[in-house]
Protein backbone atom coordinates (compact mmCIF):
# COMPACT_ATOMS: atom_id res chain seq x y z
CA UNK A 1 0.00 0.00 0.00
CA UNK A 2 1.33 3.47 -0.92
CA UNK A 3 1.59 5.86 2.02
CA UNK A 4 -1.07 8.12 0.51
CA UNK A 5 -3.53 5.22 0.61
CA UNK A 6 -2.97 4.62 4.32
CA UNK A 7 -6.04 3.97 6.41
CA UNK A 8 -8.16 7.04 6.75
CA UNK A 9 -5.68 9.37 5.11
CA UNK A 10 -7.46 9.62 1.76
CA UNK A 11 -10.72 10.41 3.54
CA UNK A 12 -9.09 13.01 5.76
CA UNK A 13 -7.41 14.98 3.00
CA UNK A 14 -9.72 14.66 0.00
CA UNK A 15 -13.19 13.55 0.94
CA UNK A 16 -15.75 16.38 0.69
CA UNK A 17 -17.12 15.33 4.09
CA UNK A 18 -13.82 16.43 5.62
CA UNK A 19 -14.91 20.05 5.33
CA UNK A 20 -18.21 19.25 6.96
CA UNK A 21 -16.39 17.57 9.82
CA UNK A 22 -14.03 20.46 10.55
CA UNK A 23 -16.50 23.27 9.79
CA UNK A 24 -17.56 24.80 13.10
CA UNK A 25 -21.20 25.26 13.99
CA UNK A 26 -22.29 28.87 13.70
CA UNK A 27 -23.53 28.80 17.30
CA UNK A 28 -22.68 26.53 20.21
CA UNK A 29 -24.20 26.79 23.68
CA UNK A 30 -21.44 25.98 26.16
CA UNK A 31 -23.32 26.23 29.44
CA UNK A 32 -26.73 27.29 30.75
CA UNK A 33 -27.13 28.72 34.25
CA UNK A 34 -28.99 26.40 36.66
CA UNK A 35 -31.06 29.12 38.35
CA UNK A 36 -31.89 31.31 35.31
CA UNK A 37 -32.00 31.09 31.51
CA UNK A 38 -28.61 32.86 31.21
CA UNK A 39 -26.21 30.97 28.97
CA UNK A 40 -22.72 31.25 27.55
CA UNK A 41 -21.77 30.16 24.06
CA UNK A 42 -19.74 30.84 20.98
CA UNK A 43 -20.57 32.30 17.56
CA UNK A 44 -18.14 31.37 14.78
CA UNK A 45 -17.76 33.75 11.84
CA UNK A 46 -15.27 34.22 9.00
CA UNK A 47 -13.76 37.13 10.95
CA UNK A 48 -13.31 35.13 14.14
CA UNK A 49 -15.20 33.68 17.10
CA UNK A 50 -17.40 35.70 19.45
CA UNK A 51 -18.02 34.77 23.07
CA UNK A 52 -21.67 35.12 24.03
CA UNK A 53 -23.46 36.87 25.64
CA UNK A 54 -21.88 39.93 24.03
CA UNK A 55 -22.59 43.57 23.35
CA UNK A 56 -22.72 44.57 19.66
CA UNK A 57 -21.19 48.03 19.34
CA UNK A 58 -23.15 50.28 16.97
CA UNK A 59 -21.16 51.79 14.11
CA UNK A 60 -23.99 53.34 12.07
CA UNK A 61 -21.87 54.84 9.28
CA UNK A 62 -19.17 52.13 9.39
CA UNK A 63 -17.51 54.01 12.24
CA UNK A 64 -17.88 54.18 16.01
CA UNK A 65 -18.09 57.95 16.36
CA UNK A 66 -14.71 59.54 17.19
CA UNK A 67 -12.75 56.24 17.38
CA UNK A 68 -10.22 54.74 14.98
CA UNK A 69 -10.48 51.03 14.17
CA UNK A 70 -7.38 50.42 16.33
CA UNK A 71 -9.07 52.13 19.28
CA UNK A 72 -12.21 50.00 18.78
CA UNK A 73 -10.04 46.87 19.09
CA UNK A 74 -8.46 48.20 22.28
CA UNK A 75 -11.90 48.37 23.94
CA UNK A 76 -12.23 44.55 23.55
CA UNK A 77 -15.24 45.01 21.28
CA UNK A 78 -16.24 41.72 19.65
CA UNK A 79 -18.52 42.91 16.83
CA UNK A 80 -19.64 46.09 15.06
CA UNK A 81 -23.24 46.59 13.89
CA UNK A 82 -23.51 48.99 10.95
CA UNK A 83 -26.63 50.40 9.37
CA UNK A 84 -27.90 49.32 5.96
CA UNK A 85 -30.05 52.41 5.36
CA UNK A 86 -27.25 54.86 6.18
CA UNK A 87 -24.59 53.00 4.19
CA UNK A 88 -26.94 52.67 1.20
CA UNK A 89 -27.33 56.47 1.14
CA UNK A 90 -23.64 57.15 1.87
CA UNK A 91 -21.26 55.91 0.45
CA UNK A 92 -23.52 53.23 -1.19
CA UNK A 93 -23.06 49.47 -0.91
CA UNK A 94 -21.24 49.26 -4.27
CA UNK A 95 -18.37 51.30 -2.83
CA UNK A 96 -18.12 49.00 0.21
CA UNK A 97 -18.27 45.91 -2.03
CA UNK A 98 -15.48 47.28 -4.23
CA UNK A 99 -13.33 47.52 -1.09
CA UNK A 100 -14.05 43.88 -0.09
CA UNK A 101 -16.90 44.40 2.38
CA UNK A 102 -17.56 46.19 5.63
CA UNK A 103 -14.72 44.88 7.84
CA UNK A 104 -12.05 45.48 5.19
CA UNK A 105 -13.62 48.86 4.29
CA UNK A 106 -13.16 49.89 7.94
CA UNK A 107 -9.77 48.16 8.16
CA UNK A 108 -11.16 46.39 11.20
CA UNK A 109 -10.42 42.73 11.74
CA UNK A 110 -13.64 41.99 13.63
CA UNK A 111 -16.96 40.28 12.86
CA UNK A 112 -19.65 42.68 11.63
CA UNK A 113 -23.44 42.81 11.39
CA UNK A 114 -25.77 44.97 9.32
CA UNK A 115 -29.37 45.68 10.24
CA UNK A 116 -32.07 45.49 7.59
CA UNK A 117 -33.36 49.05 7.31
CA UNK A 118 -36.65 48.14 9.02
CA UNK A 119 -35.92 50.23 12.11
CA UNK A 120 -35.73 53.34 9.90
CA UNK A 121 -39.28 52.59 8.77
CA UNK A 122 -40.23 53.23 12.38
CA UNK A 123 -37.93 56.12 13.20
CA UNK A 124 -38.56 58.00 9.94
CA UNK A 125 -42.20 56.94 9.68
CA UNK A 126 -44.37 56.30 12.71
CA UNK A 127 -41.57 57.48 15.00
CA UNK A 128 -41.98 60.95 13.51
CA UNK A 129 -45.78 60.87 13.39
CA UNK A 130 -46.01 59.68 17.01
CA UNK A 131 -42.96 61.65 18.28
CA UNK A 132 -41.56 58.58 19.94
CA UNK A 133 -38.43 56.53 20.29
CA UNK A 134 -38.33 52.77 20.61
CA UNK A 135 -39.69 52.23 24.10
CA UNK A 136 -41.16 55.47 25.28
CA UNK A 137 -41.32 59.12 24.42
CA UNK A 138 -38.58 61.41 23.23
CA UNK A 139 -37.31 63.50 26.15
CA UNK A 140 -39.13 66.78 26.82
CA UNK A 141 -37.90 69.58 24.63
CA UNK A 142 -36.97 67.12 21.91
CA UNK A 143 -40.48 66.82 20.52
CA UNK A 144 -40.58 67.35 16.80
CA UNK A 145 -42.36 70.26 15.21
CA UNK A 146 -45.23 69.65 12.80
CA UNK A 147 -43.00 69.53 9.69
CA UNK A 148 -40.56 67.10 11.27
CA UNK A 149 -43.49 64.95 12.38
CA UNK A 150 -44.51 64.24 8.78
CA UNK A 151 -43.76 60.63 7.95
CA UNK A 152 -40.95 60.13 5.45
CA UNK A 153 -42.05 56.56 4.78
CA UNK A 154 -44.68 54.73 2.71
CA UNK A 155 -45.19 51.04 3.48
CA UNK A 156 -46.86 48.59 1.07
CA UNK A 157 -46.81 44.80 0.61
CA UNK A 158 -43.93 45.27 -1.85
CA UNK A 159 -41.71 47.14 0.60
CA UNK A 160 -40.93 50.53 2.09
CA UNK A 161 -40.48 53.78 0.22
CA UNK A 162 -38.17 56.15 2.09
CA UNK A 163 -37.27 59.78 1.67
CA UNK A 164 -33.63 60.29 2.49
CA UNK A 165 -33.10 62.30 5.68
CA UNK A 166 -30.06 63.83 3.94
CA UNK A 167 -31.46 65.33 0.74
CA UNK A 168 -35.09 64.20 0.52
CA UNK A 169 -34.42 61.87 -2.45
CA UNK A 170 -36.71 58.84 -2.77
CA UNK A 171 -35.49 55.30 -2.13
CA UNK A 172 -37.23 51.93 -2.04
CA UNK A 173 -36.35 48.91 0.12
CA UNK A 174 -37.97 45.50 -0.23
CA UNK A 175 -36.88 42.19 1.32
CA UNK A 176 -35.07 41.41 -1.95
CA UNK A 177 -33.38 44.82 -2.18
CA UNK A 178 -32.35 44.72 1.50
CA UNK A 179 -30.74 41.30 0.86
CA UNK A 180 -28.90 42.62 -2.20
CA UNK A 181 -27.60 45.66 -0.30
CA UNK A 182 -26.58 43.57 2.74
CA UNK A 183 -24.90 41.03 0.45
CA UNK A 184 -22.83 43.84 -1.11
CA UNK A 185 -21.99 45.31 2.32
CA UNK A 186 -20.70 41.83 3.17
CA UNK A 187 -21.13 41.71 6.96
CA UNK A 188 -20.77 38.29 8.63
CA UNK A 189 -24.29 38.48 10.08
CA UNK A 190 -27.29 40.16 8.45
CA UNK A 191 -30.92 40.72 9.41
CA UNK A 192 -34.19 39.94 7.61
CA UNK A 193 -36.20 42.89 6.34
CA UNK A 194 -38.97 43.82 8.77
CA UNK A 195 -41.19 46.67 9.84
CA UNK A 196 -40.46 47.84 13.38
CA UNK A 197 -43.81 49.07 14.73
CA UNK A 198 -44.23 51.99 17.11
CA UNK A 199 -45.46 51.53 20.73
CA UNK A 200 -48.41 53.77 19.78
CA UNK A 201 -49.61 51.54 16.96
CA UNK A 202 -52.87 49.83 17.90
CA UNK A 203 -53.58 46.09 17.91
CA UNK A 204 -55.00 45.98 14.38
CA UNK A 205 -52.11 47.83 12.77
CA UNK A 206 -49.51 45.83 14.73
CA UNK A 207 -51.20 42.57 13.64
CA UNK A 208 -51.32 43.61 9.98
CA UNK A 209 -47.70 44.72 10.11
CA UNK A 210 -46.46 41.56 11.91
CA UNK A 211 -48.18 39.31 9.35
CA UNK A 212 -46.57 41.32 6.54
CA UNK A 213 -43.17 41.06 8.28
CA UNK A 214 -43.67 37.26 8.36
CA UNK A 215 -44.39 37.24 4.61
CA UNK A 216 -41.30 39.43 4.10
CA UNK A 217 -39.28 36.89 6.13
CA UNK A 218 -40.17 34.16 3.61
CA UNK A 219 -39.23 36.50 0.71
CA UNK A 220 -35.97 37.34 2.53
CA UNK A 221 -34.99 33.68 2.79
CA UNK A 222 -35.91 33.04 -0.84
CA UNK A 223 -33.67 35.84 -2.10
CA UNK A 224 -30.66 35.86 0.22
CA UNK A 225 -27.18 34.65 -0.85
CA UNK A 226 -26.92 31.80 1.74
CA UNK A 227 -23.28 32.73 2.46
CA UNK A 228 -23.80 35.20 5.28
CA UNK A 229 -25.51 34.21 8.55
CA UNK A 230 -29.00 35.63 8.82
CA UNK A 231 -31.30 36.46 11.75
CA UNK A 232 -35.09 36.61 11.43
CA UNK A 233 -36.90 39.30 13.43
CA UNK A 234 -39.81 38.73 15.80
CA UNK A 235 -42.38 41.56 15.85
CA UNK A 236 -45.85 41.92 17.38
CA UNK A 237 -45.46 44.94 19.66
CA UNK A 238 -46.78 44.59 23.22
CA UNK A 239 -49.47 42.07 22.26
CA UNK A 240 -48.68 38.58 23.54
CA UNK A 241 -50.80 36.66 21.02
CA UNK A 242 -49.09 38.51 18.15
CA UNK A 243 -45.64 37.96 19.67
CA UNK A 244 -46.45 34.25 20.00
CA UNK A 245 -47.55 33.95 16.37
CA UNK A 246 -44.46 35.79 15.16
CA UNK A 247 -42.15 33.76 17.45
CA UNK A 248 -43.51 30.42 16.26
CA UNK A 249 -43.26 31.38 12.60
CA UNK A 250 -39.80 33.02 12.62
CA UNK A 251 -38.40 30.13 14.73
CA UNK A 252 -39.82 27.53 12.35
CA UNK A 253 -38.13 28.77 9.15
CA UNK A 254 -34.47 28.54 8.16
CA UNK A 255 -32.87 31.49 9.92
CA UNK A 256 -29.48 31.03 11.61
CA UNK A 257 -30.46 33.28 14.50
CA UNK A 258 -33.45 35.04 16.03
CA UNK A 259 -33.77 38.74 16.83
CA UNK A 260 -36.38 40.44 18.97
CA UNK A 261 -37.43 43.77 17.50
CA UNK A 262 -40.10 46.40 17.86
CA UNK A 263 -41.88 48.01 20.77
CA UNK A 264 -41.72 46.08 24.03
CA UNK A 265 -43.90 48.41 26.10
CA UNK A 266 -43.33 51.71 27.85
CA UNK A 267 -41.86 50.23 31.03
CA UNK A 268 -38.91 47.99 31.75
CA UNK A 269 -41.26 45.52 33.46
CA UNK A 270 -43.27 45.11 30.28
CA UNK A 271 -40.07 44.73 28.25
CA UNK A 272 -38.83 41.97 30.57
CA UNK A 273 -42.19 40.19 30.54
CA UNK A 274 -42.44 40.15 26.74
CA UNK A 275 -38.81 39.04 26.36
CA UNK A 276 -39.41 36.18 28.80
CA UNK A 277 -42.60 35.17 27.01
CA UNK A 278 -40.88 35.11 23.58
CA UNK A 279 -37.91 33.09 24.80
CA UNK A 280 -40.16 30.58 26.56
CA UNK A 281 -41.64 29.86 23.14
CA UNK A 282 -38.35 29.70 21.21
CA UNK A 283 -36.19 26.66 20.53
CA UNK A 284 -32.82 26.60 22.32
CA UNK A 285 -30.33 26.00 19.54
CA UNK A 286 -30.34 29.37 17.72
CA UNK A 287 -28.59 32.51 19.00
CA UNK A 288 -30.95 35.26 20.21
CA UNK A 289 -30.30 38.95 19.65
CA UNK A 290 -32.18 41.85 21.20
CA UNK A 291 -32.32 44.87 18.90
CA UNK A 292 -31.65 48.38 20.17
CA UNK A 293 -31.67 47.71 23.93
CA UNK A 294 -28.78 48.11 26.30
CA UNK A 295 -28.48 49.99 29.58
CA UNK A 296 -26.60 48.12 32.34
CA UNK A 297 -29.79 46.71 33.92
CA UNK A 298 -31.27 45.93 30.48
CA UNK A 299 -28.20 43.80 29.83
CA UNK A 300 -28.58 41.86 33.11
CA UNK A 301 -32.35 41.36 32.63
CA UNK A 302 -31.98 40.25 29.00
CA UNK A 303 -29.10 37.85 29.69
CA UNK A 304 -30.99 36.40 32.67
CA UNK A 305 -33.84 35.54 30.31
CA UNK A 306 -31.59 33.87 27.72
CA UNK A 307 -30.52 36.64 25.33
CA UNK A 308 -27.11 36.01 23.68
CA UNK A 309 -26.43 39.50 22.30
CA UNK A 310 -27.71 43.08 22.37
CA UNK A 311 -26.89 46.28 20.55
CA UNK A 312 -27.43 49.87 21.55
CA UNK A 313 -26.02 53.35 20.94
CA UNK A 314 -26.31 53.98 24.71
CA UNK A 315 -22.67 53.78 25.85
CA UNK A 316 -21.28 55.76 22.92
CA UNK A 317 -24.10 58.33 22.70
CA UNK A 318 -23.99 59.05 26.44
CA UNK A 319 -20.21 59.38 26.13
CA UNK A 320 -20.75 62.19 23.65
CA UNK A 321 -23.07 63.79 26.21
CA UNK A 322 -20.29 63.86 28.83
CA UNK A 323 -21.52 60.80 30.75
CA UNK A 324 -18.99 58.19 31.84
CA UNK A 325 -19.79 54.81 33.36
CA UNK A 326 -18.59 53.66 36.78
CA UNK A 327 -18.21 50.23 38.37
CA UNK A 328 -19.87 49.23 41.67
CA UNK A 329 -16.46 49.69 43.38
CA UNK A 330 -16.56 53.37 42.38
CA UNK A 331 -20.14 53.76 43.65
CA UNK A 332 -22.03 52.72 40.51
CA UNK A 333 -25.50 51.27 41.28
CA UNK A 334 -29.11 50.98 40.12
CA UNK A 335 -30.02 54.41 41.52
CA UNK A 336 -27.27 56.45 39.81
CA UNK A 337 -27.54 54.23 36.69
CA UNK A 338 -23.82 53.39 36.93
CA UNK A 339 -22.77 56.75 35.49
CA UNK A 340 -21.63 60.30 36.25
CA UNK A 341 -21.45 63.55 34.32
CA UNK A 342 -17.83 64.60 33.82
CA UNK A 343 -18.87 68.24 34.33
CA UNK A 344 -20.08 67.41 37.85
CA UNK A 345 -16.55 66.66 39.07
CA UNK A 346 -15.78 69.40 41.59
CA UNK A 347 -12.42 68.57 43.15
CA UNK A 348 -9.02 68.68 41.47
CA UNK A 349 -7.30 65.31 41.72
CA UNK A 350 -4.98 62.89 39.98
CA UNK A 351 -7.66 60.16 39.92
CA UNK A 352 -8.79 58.55 36.65
CA UNK A 353 -12.47 58.29 35.56
CA UNK A 354 -12.63 55.01 37.44
CA UNK A 355 -10.19 53.56 39.97
CA UNK A 356 -11.17 50.00 39.10
CA UNK A 357 -11.01 50.36 35.31
CA UNK A 358 -8.03 49.03 33.39
CA UNK A 359 -8.77 50.77 30.07
CA UNK A 360 -5.98 52.77 28.48
CA UNK A 361 -7.75 56.06 29.24
CA UNK A 362 -7.95 55.32 32.97
CA UNK A 363 -4.32 54.20 32.94
CA UNK A 364 -3.17 57.37 31.18
CA UNK A 365 -5.35 60.41 31.95
CA UNK A 366 -6.87 62.06 35.00
CA UNK A 367 -10.60 62.78 35.18
CA UNK A 368 -9.68 66.43 35.89
CA UNK A 369 -7.91 66.64 32.52
CA UNK A 370 -10.79 64.99 30.66
CA UNK A 371 -13.24 67.38 32.36
CA UNK A 372 -11.11 70.28 31.13
CA UNK A 373 -11.18 68.91 27.55
CA UNK A 374 -14.98 68.58 27.63
CA UNK A 375 -15.52 72.06 29.04
CA UNK A 376 -13.12 73.53 26.45
CA UNK A 377 -15.08 71.67 23.72
CA UNK A 378 -11.99 69.71 22.71
CA UNK A 379 -12.88 66.60 20.67
CA UNK A 380 -10.36 64.49 22.55
CA UNK A 381 -12.61 64.72 25.64
CA UNK A 382 -15.56 62.80 24.17
CA UNK A 383 -13.19 60.44 22.38
CA UNK A 384 -11.53 59.42 25.66
CA UNK A 385 -14.92 58.99 27.39
CA UNK A 386 -16.15 56.86 24.45
CA UNK A 387 -13.12 54.57 24.75
CA UNK A 388 -13.69 54.20 28.51
CA UNK A 389 -17.45 53.55 28.11
CA UNK A 390 -16.95 50.84 25.48
CA UNK A 391 -14.24 49.17 27.53
CA UNK A 392 -16.65 49.33 30.49
CA UNK A 393 -19.53 47.57 28.69
CA UNK A 394 -17.24 44.93 27.17
CA UNK A 395 -15.72 44.30 30.59
CA UNK A 396 -19.21 44.01 32.08
CA UNK A 397 -20.08 41.35 29.46
CA UNK A 398 -16.87 39.51 30.28
CA UNK A 399 -17.78 39.49 33.99
CA UNK A 400 -21.27 38.24 33.12
CA UNK A 401 -19.85 35.36 31.02
CA UNK A 402 -17.47 34.45 33.83
CA UNK A 403 -20.30 34.50 36.38
CA UNK A 404 -22.41 32.14 34.26
CA UNK A 405 -19.41 29.84 33.86
CA UNK A 406 -18.99 29.77 37.65
CA UNK A 407 -22.72 29.50 38.43
CA UNK A 408 -22.72 32.95 40.09
CA UNK A 409 -24.81 35.05 37.68
CA UNK A 410 -27.46 36.13 40.23
CA UNK A 411 -24.76 37.02 42.78
CA UNK A 412 -23.06 39.24 40.20
CA UNK A 413 -26.38 40.86 39.31
CA UNK A 414 -27.22 41.73 42.93
CA UNK A 415 -23.67 43.05 43.47
CA UNK A 416 -24.10 45.37 40.47
CA UNK A 417 -27.61 46.48 41.48
CA UNK A 418 -26.22 47.50 44.87
ZN1 LIG B 1 -11.57 53.35 31.94
Write up this protein.
This protein is an alpha/beta fold. The protein has a single domain, classed as TIM Barrel, CATH 3.20.20. It has helices at 9-14, 17-22, 69-74, 84-89, 93-98, 102-105, 118-129, 146-149, 175-185, 203-223, 240-252, 268-280, 296-304, 314-320, 360-364, 367-375, 379-405, 409-417; strands spanning 27-32, 39-45, 48-52, 54-58, 80-82, 112-114, 153-155, 160-163, 170-173, 189-191, 229-234, 257-260, 288-290, 309-312, 323-325, 339-341. The strands form four sheets. The chain has an eight-stranded parallel barrel with strand order 4-5-6-10-11-12-13-14, surrounded by six helices. Bound molecules: zinc ion. The site of zinc ion (ZN) has 8 residues, from helix 15 and helix 17.
Low-confidence stretches: 1-14, 133-148
Major sheet: arrangement of strands: 4-5-6-10-11-12-13-14
What is the count of DSSP helices, taking H or I runs of 4+ residues? 18
**What characteristic shape results from the CA principal axes?**
globular
The small molecules bound here are: zinc ion
Question: How confident overall, as mean pLDDT?
Answer: 89
Gyration radius, in Å: 22 Å
Task: Give the beta-strand count.
Answer: 16
CATH topology: TIM Barrel
What percent strand?
15-25%
* End-to-end separation: 70 Å
Amino acid sequence: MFPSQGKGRGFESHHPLRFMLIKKNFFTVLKTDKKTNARIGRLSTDHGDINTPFFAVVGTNATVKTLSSQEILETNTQLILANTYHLHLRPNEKVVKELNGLAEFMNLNLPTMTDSGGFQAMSLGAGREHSIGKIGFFPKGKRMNEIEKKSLVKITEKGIEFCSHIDGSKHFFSPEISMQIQSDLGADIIFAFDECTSPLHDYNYTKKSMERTNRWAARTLASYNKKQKIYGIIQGGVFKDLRLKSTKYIDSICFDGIAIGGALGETKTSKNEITEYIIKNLSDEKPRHMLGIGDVDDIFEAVERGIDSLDCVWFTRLGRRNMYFIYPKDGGNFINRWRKNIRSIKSISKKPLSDSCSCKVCKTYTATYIRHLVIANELLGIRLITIHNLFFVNHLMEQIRKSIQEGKFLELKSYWYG
